[in-house]
Design a protein that fits this description.
Layout lengths: L14 H7 L8 E2 L17 H4 L4 H15 L7 E4 L2 H7 L8 E5 L5 H8 L3 E5 L10 E5 L11 H13 L3 E5 L20 E6 L1 H4 L7 E4 L2 H11 L6 H11 L2 H24 L3 E5 L4 E4 L3 H10 L2 E2 L1 E2 L6 E4 L5 H16 L1
Parallel strand pairs: 1-11, 3-4, 3-5, 5-6, 6-7
Antiparallel strand pairs: 2-8, 7-8, 9-10, 10-13, 12-13
């Protein structure tokens, strides 16, 4: 299978580019360009041995059991732990012979890039009615950046259709932790389906690089073979196992995110933005002068996500503390005053 040349993909979190564009902006920068929980899970105590020895198989099994509990999988054998979901996105196109792939767009751009890189024929389509005879369908649910949520019955019907022609459904649930459990496909995952779950976004530990694929056990075995031994570091195994078992922290975090989401919405609506989508971890707004608004925020040391294909869109993450909220409010006040 021939590989296409890699395509550069813009991402949130690129503070290096923001600093280069606005070198005299206020420091420290406030990064609102990602959908990462700004208040991370508190790091548990760890033995120094986590850093100095190879991870034990029993530790990886414990992490898979914790992930199965958290995400509603009936069997830890359905869980594949990986050094971030991006690593899994790179691997999935290698599981399938060259195919017609439909990616529901606009969405996280790395999905389409990864499938094209491995020689697949990729179409970016606006909705499920446009997939035609695609053998592989990739979608993010809830979607990034729009927040679109496809109901589980529709996904089950789509999975059955793809399974009947030897295809594959990939559902990226990177932001599903903030939704009720019944929104996820994991508890009753169909055949020919792979669900991706991100640890770093909800738990605010993106630098840990930890993510999961969830599928029927035979597919999970194939994915673990691709990843090879010791795919996840010892510290990530330990932190992930503790955090995923902490039900109370998750409940409190979701309540706080709900409050912060309402506060952010009020600020941006008062500034003339129109809310067009999002989740509890990020909000998508539209503004006719979005580029100017982003530039003004950049001059104040506040980084938000812009979209080249949708120049009126801006995605905002949530501030981490009251100081960051006040800086955002002050910057927006200067915009309203002009």
């Amino acid at each position: 299978m021939s590989r296409a040349s890699p395509e550069p993909v813009p991402h949130g979190g690129d503070l290096d580019s923001a600093r280069a564009r606005w070198p005299h902006a206020q420091e420290p920068w406030i990064d609102l360009s990602t959908g990462i929980n700004p208040i991370p899970y508190p790091l548990p105590d760890m033995s120094p041995m986590c850093w100095s020895r190879l991870p034990f198989a029993s530790e990886e099994l414990a992490l898979r059991a914790a992930a199965a509990h958290r995400y509603g999988a009936g069997d830890p054998g359905m869980i594949v732990s990986a050094p971030g979901t991006q690593a899994l996105i790179q691997i999935l196109p290698r599981l399938v012979d060259r195919s017609d792939v439909a990616v529901l767009a606009p969405t996280y751009a790395e999905h389409a890039v990864a499938w094209r890189r491995e020689g697949h024929d990729v179409r970016e389509v606006p909705d499920l009615s446009s997939i035609r005879r695609a053998r592989v369908v990739v979608l993010v649910n809830p979607n990034n950046p729009t927040g679109r949520l496809i109901p589980r019955p529709l996904l089950h019907a789509l999975a059955r259709e793809l399974d009947s022609r030897g295809g594959l459904l990939v559902v990226d649930e990177a932001f599903a932790d903030v939704l009720p459990a019944e929104a996820s496909l994991v508890a009753d995952i169909p055949n020919a389906t792979i669900v991706l779950r991100s640890f770093g976004k909800m738990y605010g530990l993106a630098g840990l690089r930890l993510g999961f694929a969830i599928s029927q056990p035979l597919m999970a075995v194939r994915l673990r073979d691709y990843l090879g031994p010791w795919a996840v570091s010892g510290p990530a195994l330990h932190i992930g196992t503790v955090a995923l078992a902490d039900d109370q922290w998750l409940k409190v975090a979701v309540r706080r995110l709900q409050e912060d989401q309402r506060r952010l919405d009020a600020l941006l609506l008062a500034c003339g933005c129109a809310l067009i989508g999002g989740t509890l971890l990020f909000r998508l707004f539209e503004h006719q002068a979005a580029a100017e608004l982003a530039a003004t925020l950049g001059q104040h040391g506040i980084h938000v996500r812009q979209f080249h294909g949708h120049p009126t869109w801006l995605r905002f993450g949530l501030p981490a503390d009251e100081h960051a909220w006040r800086r955002l409010e002050d910057a927006l006040h200067t915009i309203r005053a002009t």
